[in-house]
Amino acid sequence: MPSNFNRREFLVLGGAFVAGHAIARGQHPPQGSRVARFQLPLRIPPVLRPVRTDDTTDYYEISQREAEVEILHGLRTDVWGYEGIFPGPTIKARRGRKVVVKQTNRLAVSTVVHLHGGVTPSDSDGFPTDMIMPGESKAYVYPNNQRAATLWYHDHAMHHTGRNLYMGLAGLYLIEDDHEANSLPHGEYDIPLIIQDRRFDADGSLVYEHGNGYRGAKGNIVLVNGSPWPRMEVATRKYRFRFLNASNAKIYRLLLSSGQSFVQIATEGGLLPKPVPIRILSLAMAERAEVIIDFSVYPLGTSLVLQNLNGKGAIEEIMRLDVVRRESDDSVVPERLTVIEPLLEKAAVRTREFVFGTKPTFGLPPVVWTINGKRFEPDRPIAEPRYGDVEIWHLKSDKELGLGMLHPVHLHLVNFQILERNGGPPLPHERGWKDTVSVDKSENVRIIARFDGFKGRYLMHCHNLEHEDHHMMARFDVI
Ligand code: C2O
Ligand code: CU
Ligand code: CU
User: Fold this and answer.
1) Residue 240 CA, ligand 2 centroid: distance in Å
2) Minimal CA–CA distance to 222: which of 262, 255, 202, 194?
C-alpha cells in the first residue's frame, strides 16, 4: 500500500471506498465500518398514541431529547429526536378533529416546531423566533380543517433549523378523512418513505458540514426512515408509498430499476385529480409525492432497486423492494381521485414578485441568500395579503447572482396551485395542491393561492435549510 494511501482515511461503505469528510482531516481513527446494502429491513416510524382524547381533540406529548441509536451497523450515533427517535414518531390526525401537541425541550439548544403543510393559527405555526428554551414546553394547536394529506413536523429555530433537522428533529403527520379514496391500498400497504442523506464520522457520529451555508449540508449515505439501503419485502399487489424528501439540501430523481413507472396520486396538499404515471420522480427538499406501485406484474423472487439519478456512487441506490409473496389485491386506483377547484387567474386581486438570489457580504460567510435582495427580517413583513384574497406570486430565481442553485420555495399557511412554469404549463405531477415548489436556476414559476384559514404572521422561504438559515426567508402577514 503506498504510504500516501492511508487506509484509515477511508470508510468502507457498501463495498465501495468513500472518503469520509471528517476523517480526511484526521479527527478520529475510522473503524472500517461496513454498511452492507439491502440487509436492514425497512423500518416504519411508530404511530404516536395520544395521552388523552376528548370529544373534539387528541392530546399528544413529545419530548425532544438526545438519544443514542444504531444507524450504521455496530456503531452508536447521537441524535436529537422527537421522543428520542430518528425520524420522529408519526402523528395520525383526522380531518376536523383538533390535535394539541405539547412539546418539551430536553435538549441543550432552543427549538421551534413547525407543522409543514398545516393550516395552523399563527401562534402555533412555529415562527423562528418563537423558541422553546431548554427545559421549557409549549403546546401547539392544530385544527386539521384541511384536506387529507401527508404533512410533516420539524424544527424551525432561527438560524439553526438546518442543524436541528440534521440531528433528527423531523417526523410525519398524516391527516386522514373518511372519503380519501377508501379503495386505495391502506393499512400495511400504505408505506411512508422519509428520505434523508447524512454524513457520518468514523465513530458513527453525524457530521454537519454546510460550507458556510452556501450549498447546504449534504451527506454521502441516503437513509430511508432512518436506515441506510433498507430492503422491504412486498407481495404481488399494489402499495401506496408516501415519499417525503426530508433532506437538508439534496434533490432526488427517483426511478425503479425495472423501468416501471410510478403512478403518482398525490402532492403535498393531497390527492391529484387523476393518477399520473411518471417514470422519474423528482423530489426537491420538503416536497412530498404519493405513488402507487403495482408489484403484481413481477414474478416472485424479483428484486427492484429504487435508484437515484442525481449524484454518483453510494447515493445512486436508495433501497430495494423484494417481491416475496403472492397475495390477492382488492385495492383499486380510481380514474378520478378527487375534484380540485382550479384557482383562476382572474380571481387574483394582485400579483407580487419575489426574486431568490444572493448578496455578497465581503466577509464570512461570503454570501447570504436573499429574497428581493433582503435578508430575513422577523419584524417586517415583505407582503400583507388581505384575508380571503386570491393572489398570484411570481417566484423567480436570480440568473446573475443565483450561482446556479435550485430553491424549493415553501409557503406556510396556504396551499397553492401552479399557474405557469417558465411560461409553460406546470409539470403533470404538479397539477394539484402544493406547498413547496422547486425553482431551479433561471426558472420562474407563477403560483396562485387564497390567503385564508387564519390571520397573522407567517413565512415564505427556501427549503434548502442552509439557505433558509442564511436569510432566504421572508415574513408575510395575512391581515
Ligand atoms: Cu418545512 Cu417553514 O418549513
Ligand atoms: Cu411549512
Ligand atoms: Cu435556496
Assistant:
1) 24
2) 194
Which among 472, 64, 473, 22 has a CA at the least distance from the CA of 208? 22
Does ligand 1 come within 6 angstroms of the Cβ of 114? yes
Distance, CA of 174 to CA of 90 (rounded, Å): 7
H/E run at residue 153: strand 149-155
Alpha helix positions (H), 161-230: 161-166
- Our answer on whether the CB atom of 459 is closer than 6 Å to any ligand 1 atom is yes
156 CB near ligand 1 (under 6 Å)? yes
**Which residues on neighbouring strands pair with residue 245, listed in sequence order?**
195
Q: What does 254-276 look like in DSSP terms, one character per residue?
A: EEETT-PPEEEEEETTEEEEEEE
Nearest CA-CA partner of 151 in 84, 220, 99, 202: 99
Alpha-carbon dihedral sign for residues 185, 188, 194, 200: negative
Q: What is d(CA 179, CA 59) in angstroms, rounded to the nearest whole number?
A: 24
The atom of ligand 1 lying closest to the CA of 459 is: 2
Q: How far is the CA of 220 from the centre of ligand 1 (A)?
A: 24
User: Mind giving me the DSSP string for 36-95?
Assistant: -TT-SBPP-PPBPPPSEE-SSEEEEEEEEEEEEE--STT--EEEEEETTBSSPPBEEEET
Using the mean position of ligand 2's atoms as its centre, give its distance from the Cα of residue 258 in Å: 35
In angstroms, the CA 149 to CA 238 distance is 19
pLDDT digit string, tens, across residues 94-125? 999 999 999 999 999 999 999 999 999 999 99
**Three-state secondary-structure class, residue 297:** helix
pLDDT band at 29 (very low <50, low <70, confident <90, very high): very low
Residue type, 175: I
Question: Under a CB-based contact definition with an 8 Å cutoff, are residues 206 and 200 in contact?
Answer: yes
What value does the CA radius of gyration of the chain take, rounded to a whole number of Å? 22
For 257-310, the pLDDT digits (tens) are: 999 999 999 999 999 999 999 999 999 999 999 999 999 999 999 999 999 999
Instruction: Please tell me the number of the ligand nearest to residue 409's CA.
Output: 3
Contacts with 344 (C-beta within 8 Å, 6 or more apart), sequence order: none
